[in-house]
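ok, trying the design again with the full structure, not the truncated one.
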């Protein structure tokens, strides 16, 4: 594999960090402040896209920053897996920035400058994770996301917001300190390096017992992936403004979590080693439990954002389940679902925010007939829902189809049952919302007539809804990147 030396991945990380400074000094001039946000988002996406032809040509881009100890470096590496996360996050940051401007201005939110600064830091960190060449570099940016998004979760500064943010920080930092960090130390001790390798770095370096302990520590330590029992930070973070929920659940935090699991499984342990020890089977059943349990919890939620939060917990474990199957189709499903879930779920959170801006409603029981008042918004919601359920012609069908194929390839009938059951549960907690919005009569005392949220809120959610359709019709780019990863690791 040809390696290209280039500093472009560093520029991708730095562009929004530079924007943080410009946003901060422009705080008294909102239009200028938000201009820097948009320019940084566009430039970041442009830089990521500029590297895509090189990656599709089968090459990788590397840049070494500094060496701390032998085998312990700060370094960047752009490959096909990192490109999936980087393309998804950088594109959706553009859309989310437009939405956020409309949302924050409509509600006259306080501390908007701080809000946009933390947003920019989080997106820099997400790019850092996507392009990390080793576990150490990934861990640095992984924690950078935790710290920057803590301020976003606590944004409202109410007792409820502070409580939710503290829980968020305790879970994410706590699991990192007690599980993730020891796993990194053990990996470095036994492997002598933390650099990602296509067939892993631990095979033959330690006993199966030690490797199994390291594996469990990693899985427990990556709480951003939302697997039970380390999931409750995620619903608690719903106290944040809706743009933050969209960032947490679709773009940065949770996608960084599942991406990290993929990196560790495929490039630290490797497919062959995990198949020999049987750890893939362990992880697949662990993920399956989360999928079903979180779906059942979602059914019980009346708060729309909370229902979406538990749905996220469930859907993230589809990604973990796919890679745990250790089959070509399963791994492909995991990789493409990073993007497909991002578009579907961000649409649903955008809709929740649009409803709140236009009507101040946040409970599902209040949404009878709301589709008549907000037809574009609820049409987009319906598209997002159908994608989440995996109904064609929407993107969710593609990733779930590959997941089903992965379970067949792995000869795991119970996993097929889990996938079918979870699909029915998805329909059970999503479709009643759509039915109530369009077919139930609104309260008699409610003012009738179309009343959508402002255009800067509605247009982004329509774009992301159309994106879920586009990912069904034109999935080739995602599939090509995923197949490149599969060829590398199998």
């Amino acid at each position: 594999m040809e390696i290209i030396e280039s500093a472009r991945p560093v520029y991708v990380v730095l562009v929004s960090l530079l924007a943080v400074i410009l946003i901060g000094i422009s705080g008294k001039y909102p239009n200028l402040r938000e201009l820097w946000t948009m320019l940084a988002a566009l430039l970041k996406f442009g830089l990521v896209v500029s590297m895509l032809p090189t990656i599709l040509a089968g090459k990788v881009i590397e840049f070494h920053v500094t060496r701390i100890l032998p085998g312990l470096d700060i370094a960047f590496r752009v490959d096909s897996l990192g490109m999936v996360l980087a393309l998804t996050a950088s594109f959706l940051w553009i859309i989310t920035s437009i939405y956020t401007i409309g949302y924050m201005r409509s509600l006259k939110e306080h501390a908007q400058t701080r809000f946009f600064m933390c947003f920019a830091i989080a997106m820099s960190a997400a790019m850092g994770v996507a392009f990390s060449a080793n576990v150490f570099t990934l861990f640095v940016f992984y924690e950078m996301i935790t710290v920057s998004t803590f301020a976003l979760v606590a944004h409202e500064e109410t007792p409820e917001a502070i409580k939710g943010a503290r829980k968020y920080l305790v879970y994410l930092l706590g699991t990192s300190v007690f599980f993730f960090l020891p796993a990194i130390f053990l990996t470095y001790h036994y492997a002598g390096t933390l650099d990602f390798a296509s067939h892993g770095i631990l095979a033959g370096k330690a006993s199966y017992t030690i490797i199994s302990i390291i594996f469990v520590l990693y899985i427990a330590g990556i709480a951003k992936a939302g697997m039970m029992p380390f999931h409750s930070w995620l619903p608690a973070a719903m106290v944040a403004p809706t743009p933050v929920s969209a960032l947490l659940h679709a773009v940065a935090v949770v996608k960084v979590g599942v991406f990290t699991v993929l990196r560790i499984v495929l490039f630290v342990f490797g497919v062959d080693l995990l198949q020999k020890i049987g750890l893939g089977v362990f992880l697949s059943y662990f993920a399956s439990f989360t999928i079903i349990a979180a779906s059942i919890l979602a059914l019980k939620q009346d708060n729309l954002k909370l229902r979406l939060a538990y749905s996220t917990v469930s859907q993230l474990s589809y990604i973990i389940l796919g890679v745990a199957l250790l089959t070509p189709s399963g791994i492909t499903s995991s990789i493409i679902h990073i993007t497909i879930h991002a578009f579907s779920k961000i649409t649903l959170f955008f809709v929740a925010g649009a409803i709140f801006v236009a009507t101040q409603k946040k409970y599902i029981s209040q949404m009878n007939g709301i589709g008549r008042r907000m037809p574009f918004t609820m049409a987009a919601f319906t598209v997002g829902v159908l994608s989440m359920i995996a109904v064609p012609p929407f993107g969710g069908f593609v990733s779930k189809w590959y997941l089903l194929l992965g379970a067949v390839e792995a000869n795991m009938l119970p996993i097929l049952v889990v996938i079918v059951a979870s699909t029915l549960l998805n329909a059970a907690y999503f479709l009643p919302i759509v039915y109530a919005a369009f077919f139930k009569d609104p309260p008699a005392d409610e003012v009738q007539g179309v009343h959508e949220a402002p255009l800067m809120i509605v247009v982004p959610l329509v774009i992301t809804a159309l994106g879920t359709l586009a990912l069904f019709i034109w999935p080739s780019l995602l599939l090509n990147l995923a197949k490149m990863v599969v060829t590398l690791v199998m």
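Keeping the full-length input from now on. The CA atoms of residues 400 and 432 lie 22 Å apart.
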